[in-house]
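Field reference: sequence -> structure
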Amino acid sequence: MLKLFYRYLKPYKWMVFLAPVFMIVEVTMELVQPRFMARIIDKGIAKGDLRCIWITSLIMLGTTAVGMIGGVGCTIFSSIAAQYFGTDLREALFKKVLGLSFAETNRFSTASMITRLTQDVQQVQQMIGMALRMLVRQPFMLIGGISMAMHIHPKLALILLVLIPPLVILVLIIFKYSRPMFMSVQTKTDALNAVLQENLTGVRVVKAFVREEYENEKFGDANKTLADQHIRTARFMSGMMPAMMFLMNLGILAVLWIGGWTVRRGELSVGEVVAMVTYITQILFSFMFASFIMTDIARSKVSAERINEVLDSEVSVRNDGTLKAEATTGGGASVAFDHVTFRYPGASGPAILQDISFELKPGETMAIMGSTGSGKSTLVHLLPRFYDVDSGSVIIDGHNVQEYELSELRSLMGMVLQESVLFSGTIAENIRWGNPDATDEQVVEVAQAAQAHGFITNFKEGFKTIVGQRGVTLSGGQKQRLSIARALLKKPRLLILDDSTSALDGTTEQKLRAGIREWCKGVTVIQIAQRISTVKNADKILVLQDGKIVGLGTHDELSKTCRVYQEIVESQES
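Structure field:
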C-alpha cells in the first residue's frame, strides 16, 4: 500500500509537502484560540477591561484568518495531489490491463476489472486527500492539545491518562474488524456488477428467452446481498461512535467537575477551566476523527490490495524480443509449427494442443477444420502470442515468434477473431483501426473488397453511420465484413480468419475470397472454417481432433486418406 502511494505521489511531492505545512498553520492557530478566550474571560470580563477584550478579539480574528488560509491551502494542495494520483493510477492500471496476456485476463472478471478501475481507485484517491489533511491535523491537534493542557494544569490533564487507553482500544478494534467487512463489500460489488454487465450485453438473449423475471430475481439477490453487507458494516460502525462520544462527554464532565473544585481552591481561573475544557474536547475529537480515518484506511487498504493484485500480476507472455518486422522479407509470411504442445494455465487433463507440426510457405492458404473444442482457435492464438507454447516453437519467417518485439510481431498480422467486436464510433472509424492514416478512398476500397460497401451505402449516413457499442446495431454478417475490412486495411503479410465468415451466404463468401486475393496479393492466409465449400480450394487443409493433427493435405488428398475429413464431407453433402 505504501509502495503504491510512494510511486504515484512522487511526481507531486511538493503538493504533498505543502498540504501538511498549511495544515500545521491551521492547527497552530486553533490551538492558541482557547488561551485568548481565557484571557478575555479572566482579564477582560472579570476585570471589566474593555480594551483588553477588543485587542484580544482582534488578535483572535487575525489568527482565525491565518488559520483559514492554512485550511484552504491544505485543501487545495491535497485535492490536487489526490486527483493527479487517481488519474495516474487509473492510467497505469488501464495500461497494465491492456498489457496482460489472455492467461492473466482470464483470472479477473470484466466486472471486477471495472470495479477496480473505478470504485477502488476512487476509494484510494479519497483516502489520499483525507490523509494529507486529517493524518496531519489529528496528531498535531492531539500533541498540541495535550501540551497546552499540561501547561495550564498538569494534574487536571491527567484525566487524559484514564480516557486515552479505552479510546485507543476502540480505534484498533475498528481497524481490525472493519477491513474484512469492506473486503466483503467490494467482493459483493464485483458480483453485482457481473450480473449487471451480463444483462446489459445479453439483453436481447434475455428478451428472446423471456427470462426477464429470472434475471430480475438474480439481480435482486445480488443487490440485497450487497445491501445486507453494507448494513452489517454500518451496524458495527454505529456501535463504535456512541461509545467514543460517551467517553468524550465523560471526560468533559470530569474536567468540569474537578475544574470547579480547583477554581474554588484558587488553583485555576474560570478562563483557564474553559480553555482546559476546549483542549480536552479537541484532544478527544482528535481520537474520534482518528476512528473515521482508520475506517477509511481499512477500506482503502482493501482497495489498494485489489489494485496491486492487478498491477503486480506477472505477465506470462514477456516482451523480451528485439526483432523488428522491417527486418523480415516482404510479401506473404512463412509459418511453421515445430512439435508444439500447449495447455491452458491451471488446466488439468491432456494438453489442448499436442505435438503440432506443419509448414506454410509465403502466399499459401491453409484452412483448419475440426470439431468444437479440437483446438482450432487456440492454434491461431499462438501466432500473435496471446499465449506462449509449453514446448516446441512457433516460427514466422524463419524466426521464433518469441524473438520478435510483440508490437512488431502483431503488426505482421491481420486478425479477425471468432467474435466480431466493433467499437462505439462511425463505420469509417472502426475500419480505420487497421490503419489510422488510411485515406477515405482506401477505406472505400477495402470495404468493397470485404463486400461491405453495399450495405454501408444503404445507410443514410454511409461511412459516417454511428455503430452502437459492440456493433449491436448491425447484423452478424455485417459485423463480420467490417471486421474483415478492418484487418485487410492493415495490408498484413499474414491474414488469420477465425471462423469469420460463418454468418455469410455462399455467394457473398465467394466474392469475399476473391476480394481478399485482389486486395492482399501474395498474403499468407490461415482460415478456420466449418464449411467444405469454404476450404476446398485451400492449398492445405489441416484437420484437428482432440488437439492432434489427424489430417494435412489438399481437399482431394484428405477426401481419400482422412476419415475425419471424409465424415465432415459426407455430413455436409448429405
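Note: The first helix runs from residue 2 to 9.
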